[in-house]
């Protein structure tokens, strides 16, 4: 059963990181910040622990997890790569690790990563995250750490320790408070198991940056681009995701009654003015907008209760660079949802 006791809050000093590593080694569930979002970590080698991760999140067990490593060497030891794949994986790792890139690779037959992490697939998702504290945590733990984003399944990913506690207090053993995340959107997921690299999820590393290393042959998965129906070989790419409790409407230039306005740069609405406007980046800086997106969606949800809001209208956003990931998250937030996701969190 998930741990129904107090969740420890740990500082990101040496003692806090040591304690977090110790709890992880003992099979605990520990949330920690990475450069992208907070992860809900546990030993990737322990089926028991990985099952607890799925329980704590309320995540369907067919949706596989990313394993996190202290080094590319440790990550690649879990994979079975032929020469051309090996060259590309190493080139990507040299350029982007530690950093917001996840690689899907063929799983090594003798990999110690639990089948519960990979949902029984023949592939594994690996990444080396960036950040002083998380890098030290992974080094001290000395084992691969499976970590989905530290939110309840289907909800908005957390970019602060407070966000984690709001949803997982009492369900995890500790949260290592590493401050607000510097990127604010999840890692880019690049699948290298087929004849061409496939972008499964746009994220902190942009498609333009990937082109520099992979050439122009990257296939952009349809679901990843427009939030539509998932492909069978990408079980995690559920359409409705990153969802605040308020309904989200995209590319809005007019406000409907009760809607808050989430905007960017100098964009304004025509006609009646909204009661509440949040600007993701008044300067029109897409990195700043990415960093603030998830906190802004949570802020709007909280304001909804106070101000009787009925929805979020989102201004048109740029497509280039990090804009691709930003728009992907907003499309998923706007996608049709199962009834149980539309009610406000308890
Ligand atoms: O930035 C991130 O990636 C954060 C931090 C904590 O590292 N983690 C994260 O994990 O976003 P999660 O579980 O929320 O998203 C992992 C994504 C899911 O869409 C999942 O389906 C996909 O990666 N994935 C994992 N293993 C896969 C595999 N073997 N094949 C295809 N997709 C996979
Ligand atoms: Mg997630």
**Count of helix runs:** 10
- Report the top-level CATH class of the largest domain: Alpha Beta
Order of neighbouring strands in the sheet with most strands: 1-8-2-3-7-4-6-5-9-10-11
Mean pLDDT: 91
Characterize the biggest β-sheet. Answer: 11 strands, mixed
Helix content, binned percent: 25-40%
Structure, briefly:
Its EC number is 2.7.7.87. This protein has ten helices and 15 strands.
What does it look like?
The chain is of the alpha/beta class and about 350 residues long. The chain folds into 2 domains: about 10-225, DHBP synthase; about 250-340, Threonylcarbamoyl-AMP synthase, C-terminal domain (Rossmann fold). The protein contains 10 helices and 15 strands. It has helices spanning about 15-25, 45-55, 70-75, 85-95, 130-140, 160-170, 205-215, 220-225, 285-305, 325-335; strands at about 10, 30-35, 40-45, 65-70, 100-105, 125, 145, 175, 190, 200, 220, 250, 260-265, 275-280, 310-315. An 11-stranded mixed beta sheet has the order 1-8-2-3-7-4-6-5-9-10-11, sandwiched between helices. Helix 7 (about 205-215) links the parallel strand 10 and strand 11 (about 220). The chain is globular. The protein starts with 7 loop residues before the first strand and ends in a 12-residue tail after the last helix. The model is unreliable at about 225-240 and about 340-345 (pLDDT under 50). Bound molecules: threonylcarbamoyladenylate and magnesium ion. Threonylcarbamoyladenylate (TXA) binds near residues 36, 102, 148, 149 and 186. It comes from Bombella favorum. Keywords: ATP-binding, Cytoplasm, Nucleotide-binding, Nucleotidyltransferase, Transferase, tRNA processing. Its main location: cytoplasm. Required for the formation of a threonylcarbamoyl group on adenosine at position 37 (t(6)A37) in tRNAs that read codons beginning with adenine. This is Threonylcarbamoyl-AMP synthase.
């Amino acid at each position: 059963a998930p741990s129904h006791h107090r969740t420890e809050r740990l500082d990101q000093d040496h003692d806090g990181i040591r304690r977090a590593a110790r709890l992880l080694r003992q099979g605990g569930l520990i949330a920690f910040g990475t450069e992208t979002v907070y992860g809900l970590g546990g030993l990737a080698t322990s089926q028991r622990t990985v099952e607890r991760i799925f329980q704590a999140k309320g995540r369907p067990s067919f949706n596989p997890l990313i394993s996190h490593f202290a080094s590319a060497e440790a990550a690649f030891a879990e994979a079975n790569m032929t020469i051309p794949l090996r060259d590309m994986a190493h080139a990507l790792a040299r350029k982007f690790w530690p950093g917001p890139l996840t690689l899907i690779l063929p799983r090594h037959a003798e990999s110690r990563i639990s089948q519960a992490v990979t949902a029984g697939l023949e592939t594994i998702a690996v990444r080396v995250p960036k950040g002083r504290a998380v890098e030290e945590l992974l080094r001290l733990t000395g084992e691969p750490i499976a970590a989905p984003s530290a939110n309840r399944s289907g909800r908005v990913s957390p970019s602060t320790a407070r966000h984690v506690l709001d949803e997982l207090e009492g369900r995890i053993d500790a949260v290592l408070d590493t401050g607000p995340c510097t990127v604010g959107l999840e890692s880019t997921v690049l699948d290298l198991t087929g004849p061409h690299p496939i972008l499964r999820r746009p994220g902190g590393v942009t498609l333009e940056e990937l082109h520099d290393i992979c050439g122009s042959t990257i296939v952009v998965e349809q679901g990843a681009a427009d939030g539509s129906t998932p492909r069978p070989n990408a079980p995690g790419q559920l359409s409705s995701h990153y969802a605040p409790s308020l309904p989200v409407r995209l590319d809005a230039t007019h406000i409907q009654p009760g809607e808050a306005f989430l905007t960017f740069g100098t964009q304004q609405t025509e006609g009646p003015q909204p009661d509440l406007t949040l600007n993701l980046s008044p300067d029109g800086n897409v990195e700043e907008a990415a960093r603030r997106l998830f906190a802004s969606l949570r802020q709007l949800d909280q304001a909804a209760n106070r101000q009787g809001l009925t929805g979020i209208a989102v201004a048109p956003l740029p497509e280039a660079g990090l804009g691709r990931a930003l728009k992907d998250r907003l499309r998923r937030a706007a996608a049709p949802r199962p009834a149980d996701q539309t009610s406000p969190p308890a």
